[in-house]
Write a structure and sequence with these properties.
This protein is mainly β and 322 residues long. Helices cover 6% and strands 43% of the residues. The strands form six sheets. Strands 1-24-23-22 form a four-stranded antiparallel sheet, with no helix packed on it. A four-stranded antiparallel sheet has the order 2-3-4-5, with no helix packed on it. It has a four-stranded antiparallel sheet with strand order 6-7-8-9, with no helix packed on it.
C-alpha cells in the first residue's frame, strides 16, 4: 500500500484521519491496538535501504522477488543476499507472484501516471510481456491452485471494480469477478475453495471461489483499528496480516475477528499525525530451512524474517507455497 501522494483516495484519507485521531487520543492505545503475542518471535533484517517495498513472493530457492512502488522496480533478492533490480522505470508496481519460470506483477497501483497493467517477467530470458492494460488501480495479487490469478482493484481511476480474475493459459479475463469494493490484500483460505481479502473499510472478507458475488464479512477486526494490507493464511486457519496504518503484523482469527500483534514498529515515519503512516505492506510464508517463517515488506524499505516460537505452526494454507 502506498502513501497519500500516490493513493489520494477520499475513502482512505477519511479512514486514516479517523484512525489517526484515535491513535493520538489520550489512552487510546489500550483500546484500539491488539494485545501483544510477540513473545518468542525473532525478527531478522534480510534487506534494507531499498526504497519503499510494496510486495514480495518466494522464488522457491531461498530468495524473493520484490516490488519497489515509488522507485518503480521489480527486483530479486537471492538466497545469498544479492539484490538486483530486474525491471526498472515501472509505474508504481504492486503485487507479485511466482509461477514456474514466470513472475507475474502489477503496475499502476493507486493514482499513477498511466492505467494499471498485469505483466509477466520471464525468469529465463528477462523478457517482460504486458498481459492486460487499462486496469483500475491494481494492488494485491494471488495465484490460485489452478494457475489462475486474482488481483484487487482499489478504484483510483473511477468506480471501484472489486477483484478481477485472469487465466494465463488462455488469456480469459473477468474484470469484476467479485464486487468487493476497495479490495486490497488477498490470501488463499485453508479449504482451498475460498479466499480472504482485506479492504479499505478496515474489514476482512471471505469469498467462495464458486460464488464470488457473495462476500460476507468474516472479521471486522472489532478489537482494534487497523488498515489491513496484504496477508497470508496458515493451514490451521490463522491469518497473518500486515497493518499499513500502525506498521505491524497481526495474527488474526478470522472466525472471531480477534487478534494480537506479532511485531510492531515497521513504519517509514513513526509520526502518529502523518496521514496515513507508511507501514507494513505484505506478509508471505516461505521456507526457512526445514521450517516456515513469515517474511514482511514495509515502506521503510526493509525485508524482515520473523521466526515463530515453538508451538506456532506456520504451514501455509496454500500447499503450493514455495
Amino acid at each position: 500500500m502506498a502513501p497519500t501522494s500516490t493513493r489520494a483516495r477520499s475513502a482512505l484519507c477519511a479512514l486514516a484521519i479517523a484512525a489517526a485521531g484515535l491513535l493520538t487520543a489520550p489512552g487510546a492505545h489500550a483500546r484500539i491496538l491488539p494485545p501483544s503475542c510477540a513473545d518468542g518471535w525473532r525478527a531478522e533484517t534480510l534487506l534494507e535501504g531499498v526504497g519503499n517495498l510494496e510486495n514480495l513472493d518466494s522464488d522457491g530457492a531461498g530468495g524473493f522477488y520484490l516490488t519497489g512502488i515509488l522507485d518503480g522496480y521489480l527486483a530479486h533478492l537471492s538466497a545469498d543476499g544479492k539484490f538486483e533490480k530486474l525491471v526498472t522505470g515501472l509505474d508504481h508496481p504492486a503485487g507479485v507472484r511466482v509461477a514456474g519460470e514466470s513472475v507475474f506483477f502489477l503496475t499502476g497501483d493507486g493514482i499513477a501516471e498511466a492505467p494499471g497493467t498485469l505483466r509477466r517477467y520471464d525468469i529465463r530470458t528477462g523478457e517482460v510481456t504486458v498481459l492486460l492494460t487499462g486496469l483500475n488501480g491494481p494492488n494485491g495479487l494471488l495465484l490460485l491452485p489452478d494457475g489462475d490469478l486474482l488481483f484487487s482493484n482499489i478504484g483510483a481511476r473511477g468506480l471501484p471494480t472489486g477483484i478481477s480474475r485472469y487465466r494465463p493459459s488462455t488469456g480469459e479475463f473477468t474484470p469484476t469477478w467479485s464486487p468487493v469494493p476497495l479490495a486490497n490484500g488477498l490470501a488463499l483460505a485453508p479449504d482451498g475453495r475460498s479466499i480472504y481479502t482485506s479492504n479499505l473499510t478496515l474489514r476482512l472478507f471471505r469469498i467462495s471461489l464458486d460464488a464470488p458475488a457473495a462476500a460476507p464479512v468474516v472479521a471486522g477486526l472489532p478489537d482494534f483499528v487497523a488498515l489491513p494490507d496484504d496477508m497470508e493464511a496458515t493451514r490451521d486457519g490463522d491469518l497473518f496480516v500486515a497493518d499499513h496504518l500502525a506498521g505491524a503484523v497481526y495474527r488474526v482469527d478470522p472466525d472471531t475477528g480477534t487478534g494480537c500483534s506479532v511485531i510492531t514498529g515497521l513504519i517509514k515515519r513513526p509520526d502518529p499525525v502523518r496521514i496515513p503512516p507508511d507501514g507494513a505492506t505484505s506478509v508471505r510464508i516461505a521456507r526457512d530451512g526445514d521450517s516456515w517463517a513469515l517474511y514482511v515488506t514495509s515502506m521503510d524499505g526493509t525485508l524482515r524474517r520473523l521466526r515463530p516460537p515453538p508451538g506456532v505452526d506456520l504451514t501455509p494454507a496454500d500447499s503450493t507455497r514455495r
